[in-house]
Amino acid sequence: MKSTLICAALTSLSLVTYAQQTKSKPPLDHSVYNSWESIGKKAISNNGQWIVYTITPQEGDASLVIYDNKTRRSMEVPRGGKPVITEDSRYVVFSIDPYFKDTRQAKIKKKKTAEMPKDSLGIVTLEQWQLWKAPMVKSFKTPAKGSGWVAYLLERPEWDKDSTSGTPLIIRNLKDNKEDTLPHVLEYAFSKPGNKLLAEITTAKKDPLTKAGVLLWDITSRKLDTLSRGSGERKLLTFDDKGLQTAWVSTRDTAKAPQRIFQLYYYKPGQDTGIIAAGRQTPGLPNNWGVADSSKIEFSENGQRLFFGTAPIRPPKDTTLVDFEVAKVDIWNYQDDFLQPMQLKNLNRELKRSYTAVYDPATQKVLQLGNKDLETVVTADEGNGTYALGYTDKGERIAMQWTGRTLKTAWLLNVGDGTRRMVKEKLDGDFYISPKGQYLYWYDRVARHWFSYQVSSGAIRNITASIPTKMYDEVDDHPDEPDTYGVAGWLEGDKYAYIYDRYDVWQVDPGGQQAPVNITHGIGRKDKTRFRYEKLDEEERFFKKDQDLLLSTFNETTKYNGFSLLRLKTGTLQALAMGPYAYQQPGKAKNAASYIFTKSSYELSPDVYAATLSGKTPSFNKAVQLSHINPQQQQYNWGTASLFKWTAYNGQPAEGILYKPEDFDSTKHYPVLIYFYEKLSDGLYNYSPPAPTPSRLNIPFFVSRGYLVFAPDIIYENGHPGKSAYNYIVSGARALAQHSWADSTNMGIQGQSWGGYQVAYLVTQTHLFKAAWAGAPVANMTSAYGGIRWESGMNRQFQYEHTQSRIGATLWEKPELYLENSPLFHLPNVTTPLAIMSNDADGAVPWYQGIELFTGLRRLGKPVWLLNYNNEAHNLVLRQNRKDIQRREQQFFDHFLKGAPAPQWLLYGVPATEKGVSWGWDLNNNNP
Predict the structure, then answer these.
(1) pTM of the full predicted structure?
(2) Rounded to whole angstroms, what are the CA distances from 399 to 137, 448, 565?
(3) 331 neighbors 343 (Cβ within 8 angstroms)
């Protein structure tokens, strides 16, 4: 009876003739994926003359392109990657990957790591276009602020079986090509100005004269000093900003020791060797605490402080215990801060947790700043500030189970003596400290405003109270306090903070003396255009008073994107670019008005552009296109994207994206696929490459093959997420069906995760759809409510009470809402064939949700299939699995919506005895 019902569902299809693809432009197929390219890392030199970027295919060998912005000349280096342009704009240093085919063959042969093909190093001298290479390179580094040098660590030769020793480190002078070699190096670090280099040296079995230690190499004099010598491990090699003082942590305990005790070492010029700055018995550290080896160490900008991490010393491992004689059990206690799954997920992080301490080189004293009652310490003024921010959520963590976040308490912390002053208790929000440390500030979700705390006076002020627009997300539709739009940055000297509303940027006086000023002049709200600051310098801590700010722009009505330039000195706002494109990933030369960015649309691949601003009316209109990736796209039937608008069933205006084939003919009929996830229309001009899907719909693939794809936005009503999806998706589908070219008798739906839930819900509420595909769906909110998100270990209750699932109440307060929105309780209504993907290693949605859905439909005799990709995540990670599901999605929808033959897996499944032998892809050409 079961097979009869399924076969009936598969064969009762009307044969419809659809628009044929033009002969000159065939549709995309599964063979096109590997060669489809994307832009990887890109950079522009400090003087603006040189631009580098990588072009990476989905599978295969990448390439590095070097472009001269002055002469328009370019150079391509096969397999180049990770490019770095030196500070003096004279060299490009990069890695060269092995051939993809060689690495693939090595994996097929299951070669060990030491036997795998290795990277090479490449250096191009820019003015001469000279390329130099070095083979077998493990890593390379250049000074962050210096020029003329590169250090690279060689791989271990295959014949060298001493896996514990280091390998040669080569220090190369880029100007004269001279090289120096340090043997047996494990770890190394340049100083920022590039005047010094630190290296950890190990012993070597074949070189008994070599002793482990830390060496200091003077770049200019090419002299070597020994800062530490003897057995043990050194790590976290660190310089101050001038390259004078150094620090590291060290232990003489071996990796197999039952307990490892680390010490902090410090060195400055004039010392013979490094001295122990902090250790187990150091005054200033809590009793039985020591130096942590898992926390970075760093000097303040002025070099007068050295910050490092400490932690309680764990007792040595009990070696008398016999593994098979002890119980393996997790104890769940209702008073625990975190549930056991979350504790186990974060176990390694907690074992490595450290607390901030500071060492004063002048007095050689240590001060503990953070502890178990104040886990987070944030310094100001690059560590120079008198005060720091400290905050904790201790005592507030249990509620995370149902709120999804914790309340926090902030303290003002004196870095000089460790004294504390409580600033704000139990905040629903996050705390920050201004760049110079004159203010603490925060957004209060409950009050829905920004507040400042003035360090000098202790005064707390609502600094956005007089702003007439809302500081919180105006369109948030979750049953929770809305979040903020954020902060763009601060002006030097902590004079102003720059805070976003929905559209504009406000200049706010944290001291409360001056009224807020809309520095984008209200243009954003007037035109419904969002202005957001693009940070172009990673080291920028504040804005300078004469700085020009690059703002990204987005119009909510047209979905146009662009850039604008805001001049802080004059207050003028100038549009640089705006149009039906996606402008993304901007970069700027440090010492020139030269910019790079990518520009794309649904029809245009994201390519690299370069522009130099000049004159009174600067613009990106004359930007030069540098890259031209994916020229093969022109050979295929691609598509177009446009806004589609209608009125939802709740009477509200609605919009979404409608994708049509390039050869669209309005006199013909097209099958329709509807894909959804919250709101997608803002991405109207985003490019979607054809790629194997993690479980989402591969839009360009299906559009190319003669489908219309519709992506409607959904606005939710709290307590009724399922009904909300119905109001927008079904109304949108029926509005689309009013057009003769949209075939209402052959419509399908596809969604992943939250979209997968909505697919499962919709097939219980309507018979409109002829086929449905749900990835990682929730079927039963009553069982999912108490489930675990195994990727994080968090309980799922917060999702229903406060976030995406939008019930807004506990299961006991409003059980009727959980039942109303659970597809499981409405399965008898289903007539649509449904394919489900639920993976056994899903860390977001428990895969038993897919099982409940499948077994319920199976029990009712409904046509249903479930794909479980073994040991796979919520979204597929492995490329071979992505390729597999893409193929099955095509076969599924082609069969039900186009009348194509059914594949074997759809008709008969794949028995466990055939797993790994047959994939069931073959089509049954005898089946209509």
Answers:
(1) 0.94
(2) 50, 21, 44
(3) no
